[in-house]
Amino acid sequence: MYRADNSNIHKQPGRLFIGPYYISITEDCPASSGYRLPTAAMAFVREDEADDKFADFSCIISAGELPDIAICKCIASYSSGPSPYRIFRMGPDELLWIRYKGNDEVRLAYAISEGWSKWRLIADRTGTLGVDSFLELGYIFAYSVIKKDGLMLHGVVMEWAGMGIIVCAHSGIGKSTHANIWESREQARIINGDKALCYKEKDAWYSCGAPWCGSSGKYINKRLAISAIVLLERSNKNRVERLSHLQGAIGLIGLTYAPGWDEELMNKALDLLDEIVEAVPVYRLYCRPDYEAVAVLKQELENLNGLVR
Questions:
Q1: What phi and psi values does residue 275 have, to the nearest 5 degrees?
Q2: Over 60: is that where the pLDDT of 303 sits?
Q3: Which of 166, 119, 143, 116 shows the shortest CA–CA distance to 269?
Q4: How many CA atoms are closer than 13 Å to the CA of 53, on its beta-carbon side?
Q5: N or C: which end of the chain has fewer CB within 10 A?
Q6: What is the chain's Cα-based Rg?
Q7: What are phi and psi of 16, to 5 degrees?
């Protein structure tokens, strides 16, 4: 089982506040390691002396040896594409998350422990000085946040007319195209161009910006009450329909970051999804990649919010 000496931890390169979640990032390797937080992360850094003891998640940038994978049990893997990954169980509450190059050569490795609240970067062979390892952290965060009643959806978060709207779709359907039309024609603000972090405070559900935004490059450190969730579906005719709670949940399951190989986390994610669709209207927009699709959805949202134009 992997263990590392924590006695020489340096001052952290960043304290990140993403929605209600506090991530403490520290180094226990020499300052000359070259690790830097990427530009997107800096928008979520707070410089005050937050107490690391109360961090929701802690990430340690470490220089360590990989454990013996041969004695670890592989519990999940994805072998397609240029960057496959595998997840191993090293102990009752310790996982090893490895991202590979196109072959079996390790690119990145994280040790994850204490109920997904402790993350340790134990190998970074990308030569990107923290850029790729921080990008990988976005996937780990999406799973970890489930433990703390958060849920990440694959979708664009935008603000329009005081409303928080999440536009969800699988890759290639056109959510970015649709959101870009909202931005250019309706002056919507893109809070995150790819990932929608959702969480509940009191009786309301919120979404917010996050430093992981896919290839969109669009993120703003701001939170919004969620007014509606929209599922996009390609069609030769633009029309919108409101879904039942069950239809909404079914439509969003495949767009939720949840590990199917972890029964506890998967069940928790499904429970949170049920809560969201009970509280927030969910629509399906059958659409073409044009402004008329925006206009059709806009009219529905105006009716929802009682707006007069």
A1: -65, -40
A2: yes
A3: 143
A4: 0
A5: C
A6: 20
A7: -100, 135
Q: Each residue of 205-219: pLDDT tens digit? A: 999 999 999 889 999
Token couple for 258 = 């949840």
Helix (H, G, I), strand (E, B) or coil at 115: coil
What pLDDT sits at residue 85?
A: 92
- Out of 56-65, 76-85, 195-204, 271-280, pick the least confident: 76-85
Judging by beta carbons within 10 Å of its beta carbon (0-12, 13-18, 19+), is residue 240 exposed, middle or buried? middle
Cα→Cα distances 53→15, 16, 44, 56, 58, Å: 12, 14, 19, 9, 9
Residues with Cβ within 8 Å of 256's Cβ and at least 6 positions away in sequence, in order, are: 151, 152, 153, 154, 269, 273
- In the predicted model, is pLDDT for residue 2 greater than 70? no
Q: Is the pLDDT of residue 35 over 60?
A: yes
Instruction: Give the DSSP letter string of 249-300.
Output: HHHHHTTB---TT-HHHHHHHHHHHHHHHHHS-EEEEEE-SSHHHHHHHHHH
Per-residue pLDDT averaged across 56-85, rounded? Answer: 87
pLDDT at 174 over 80: yes
> Which domains, and CATH codes, for the chain?
10-148 (no CATH), 150-305 (3.90.228.20)
Other beta carbons within 10 angstroms of residue 237's beta carbon come to: 10
Q: Is 220 helix (H, G, I), strand (E, B) or coil?
A: coil
